[in-house]
Description:
Blueprint: E1 9-13, E2 22-25, H1 31-47, H2 50-65, H3 77-93, E3 97-101, E4 111-112, E5 128-132, H4 133-145, H5 147-175
Parallel strand pairs: 1-3, 3-5
Antiparallel strand pairs: 1-2, 4-5
Amino acid sequence: xxxxxxxxxxxxxxxxxxxxxxxxxxxxxxxxxxxxxxxxxxxxxxxxxxxxxxxxxxxxxxxxxxxxxxxxxxxxxxxxxxxxxxxxxxxxxxxxxxxxxxxxxxxxxxxxxxxxxxxxxxxxxxxxxxxxxxxxxxxxxxxxxxxxxxxxxxxxxxxxxxxxxxxxxxxxxxxxxxxxxxxxxxxxxxxxxxxxxxxxxxxx
Length: 204
């Protein structure tokens, strides 16, 4: 089981005066922080499993074979797996910061990862996952009225985080933030795979 970790959970909303959006940070004593943190802890536990590590190993091998990548691992499965384990260890100790975005109004976009370049030491907290605020509001409302519905929202949010971190942030880790996510998948899912994010949907 993943141990506790310090988290950074922010909110972003439209500036009523125009210009850049406003940003704030949720404090640990707020419901919003508690709800997101609970989903993060589930996602961290899921990412630490062997099935998740195998999925990321397959994704890394396919990524390494793409023409626009550098064949970083040269097909060495042990080297690939050691990098997967290093990534998971980093994520478990320093989860990417979360932005709950009230400007994200498309209900079909649950979350996204704005890929950031990096060099030297990979620091997960320098990367972000942006969440659709409307889903967090739905989760909060369910927490007031229906414990069973709340648990569904909680797991859906956790699975979304697994998708974003286990595929998209992982590809940022592999390629220093430069490559796009490869359109491949070798893990069977209930939906056709469109990009590597589908590779992390092994609980779908």
